[in-house]
Amino acid sequence: MNLIEAAHAAEAGGGGGGSGLINIVFLGGFVLIFYFLLIRPQSKRRKEHQALVSSLAKGNEVVTAGGVVGQITKVEDDFIKIRVAPKIEMRVQKSAVSATLPNGTLKSLDESGG
Question: pLDDT by residue (tens digit) across 18-57?
């Protein structure tokens, strides 16, 4: 009887090699999912924001991350000056700009009473 029990125990222990390969495949799948759902989109957004920041020029109308809307009056190395109202300018970091607006947006906002 001991021989039969030993044979069953050997069969159960010998199947472990295939499960290691399956674990590696699952791990690789998780890495791919993590890359395509998290790393790649974040990298794409970072590149788009860097292109936006490098293309800022005098006269552009922008919105900062804090929601301030204005027109660029001066571009410096790391900062820009934006006019938020007549005779009122603010200096903000270039990286704080979240979007550029089409030209004429500020004028239409002023006309609508906003």
Answer: 788 899 999 999 999 999 999 999 999 999 999 999 999 9
Contact 94, 80 (CB under 8 A): yes
10 Å Cβ neighbour count for 98?
Answer: 13
With helix as H, strand as E and coil as C, how does 50-92 read?
HHHHHCCCCCCEEEECCCCEEEEEEECCCEEEEEEECCEEEEE
97: buried, middle or exposed (CB in 10 Å: 19+, 13-18, 0-12)? buried
pLDDT at 54: 93
Confidence of residue 68 (pLDDT cuts 50, 70, 90): very high
Ranges of each domain in the chain: 2-52, 57-111
Evaluate whether the domain defined by 57-111 bears CATH number 2.30.30: yes
Question: Is the pTM value of this prediction over 0.85?
Answer: no
State how far the Cα of 95 lies from the Cα of 14, in Å rounded to an integer: 59
What gap in Å lies between CA 81 and CA 60, rounded to an integer? 11
